[in-house]
Specification:
The complex is a heterodimer of chains A (114) and B (116). Chain A has strands at 3-6, 10-14, 19-21, 23-26, 31-38, 44-50, 56-58, 64-68, 73-78, 87-95, 103-104, 108-113. With 114 residues, chain A is an all-beta fold. In chain A, strands 2, 5, 6, 10, 11 and 12 form a 6-stranded mixed beta sheet that branches. A 4-stranded antiparallel beta sheet of chain A has the order 3-9-8-7, with no helix packed on it. Chain B is an all-beta fold and 116 residues long. Chain B is 0% helix and 49% strand. Chain B contains no helices and 11 strands. The chains are: A mainly beta (114), B mainly beta (116). The interface between A and B is medium-sized, with 25 and 26 residues.
């Protein structure tokens, strides 16, 4: 079975600082990887995804993530955060196989302070 | 295009009551999923379906039943609600994987359920 570990449950940062949200996964087969963002009392919004090809993936709102197969990681980065980036971020893995099922990490709460 | 629609958006139940959550998608997706979201736990898979007439258990199926009589609808039932089922429920659907760059999951906006 696959699993996802988001190494930090909470990440506080100051506005305009860089941020990295860490995600590691385990799977016995090749995977697709996703990052979602959830603003307070809202649903899930797709930030970016890795399906194949370039390991550096760019998403919405200036976020990017790098797929590292050898380290089984998919860390999310942004060079300069805004207060509006305050939200919960979820990493998810989709193992390729006969019945794909998206498995989520427990989430990282990013709080951007002025 | 509505995507994935969940009804209702909010509901308060008394312990022991039953209810059905409806998920409807208009994208002709084969696969549909029900997740629950609890603080600090992320989203956990309750049940899923790989096509019309099929269902399967996910990670946390106890206390829930599902049905997929029509391809576009996936129903989640609580026969006898318990306070532990207080949660936010999300439905999702996805197409058959073909290697297309558009591959991905579409989520509904969620149902906030409180069991008192």
């Amino acid at each position: 079975a696959q699993s996802v570990t988001q190494l930090d449950s909470q990440v506080p940062v100051f506005e305009e600082a860089p941020v990295e949200l860490r995600c590691n996964y385990s799977s016995s087969v090749s995977v697709y990887l996703f990052w979602y963002v959830q603003y307070p009392n809202q649903g899930l919004q797709l930030l970016l995804k890795y399906l194949s090809g370039s390991t550096l993936v760019k998403g919405i709102n200036g976020f990017e993530a790098e797929f590292n197969k050898s380290q089984t990681s998919f860390h999310l980065r942004k060079p300069s955060v805004h207060i509006s980036d305050t939200a919960e971020y979820f990493c998810a893995v989709d193992p390729r196989g006969s019945n794909y099922k998206l498995t989520f990490g427990k989430g990282t709460l990013l709080t951007v302070n002025p | 295009n509505a995507g994935v629609t969940q009804t209702p958006k909010f509901r308060v139940l008394k312990t022991g009551q039953s209810m059905t959550l409806l998920c409807a998608q208009d994208m002709n997706h084969e696969y549909m999923y029900w997740y629950r979201q609890d603080p600090g736990m992320g989203l956990r898979l309750i049940h899923y379906s790989v096509g019309e007439g099929t269902t399967a258990k996910g990670e946390v199926p106890d206390g829930y039943n599902v049905s997929r009589l029509k391809k576009q609808n996936f129903l989640l039932g609580l026969e006898s609600a318990a306070p532990s089922q207080t949660s936010v429920y999300f439905c999702a659907s996805r197409p058959t994987e073909t290697g297309a760059k558009s591959y991905g999951y579409t989520f509904g906006s969620g149902t906030r359920l409180t069991v008192v």
